[in-house]
Amino acid sequence: MKRTYLxxxxxxxxxxxxxxxxSCKEKNGMAPEYMPDMYRSPAVExxxxxxxxxxxxxxxxxxxxxxxxxxxKGTIPRGFQPYAYQNNFExxxxxxxxxxxxxxxxxxxxxxxxxxxxxxxxxxxxxxxxGDGSLVERxxxxxxxxxxxxxxxxxxxxxxxxxxxxxxxxxxxxSQLTQEERWKIIHYIRAGFxxxxxxxxxxxxxxxxxxxxxxxxxxxxE
Length: 222
Ligand code: HEC
Prior knowledge:
This protein is mainly alpha-helical. The protein has a domain at about 90-205: Cytochrome Bc1 Complex, Chain D, domain 2, CATH 1.10.760. The protein has helices spanning about 1-25, 35-40, 90-100, 105-120, 120-125, 135, 155-165, 180-195, 205-220; strands at about 50-55, 55.
């Protein structure tokens, strides 16, 4: 009696198992998923405007739904200092008159400038500043019209403007060098090659340094 009972039970279990395994199917023939959102979270595309798919404009309501938003107009990156002059001849002249090196000269600063010059300028302007760089010597670049020597009549402001935007065949170095680094190189060019008496007392730069320190202190505790 007991045996028949067990047999019936196991038969029923087997049938139930077969039915449950084979009966539930989605329309596409796949097994159903429990809480599908957990497996397939909605794909959020940081750089895709959902209004546009492969160049085709789609649903208007989805337009401009990118997660990576464009920065607000006028946004500047942290630590970036805007430069007030435009890339044209008038502003080159204006920068030449108005801009003064905001960094006080010291031998250490000149040394830093020399290192930077060795990384970014030496292959054209050369170790002596006379345009004897390796690119010019190997005739990969035409002879330079400028020689860094005593009496060269180019103000530091013009130099800064040129390093920032480039001039003639010289390209812009704004993306490689911070404004501070550009001024350090100018100290090196003027003190090193042009034998100018360097300015060791820049009051403004002390103030700027104090502000930078204050900001650093304030952001540390954030
Ligand atoms: C690819 C070669 C090249 C490199 C690299 C280069 N320069 Fe020049 N530089 C030139 C040429 C060419 C000129 C002349 C531009 C003109 O007047 O047409 C020039 C001119 C200058 C002048 C004169 C600016 C003026 O207003 O007339 C300065 C200062 C100067 N370069 C500094 C630098 C510094 C600093 C670096 C490194 C950060 C540098 N250059 C890197 C090719 C170069």
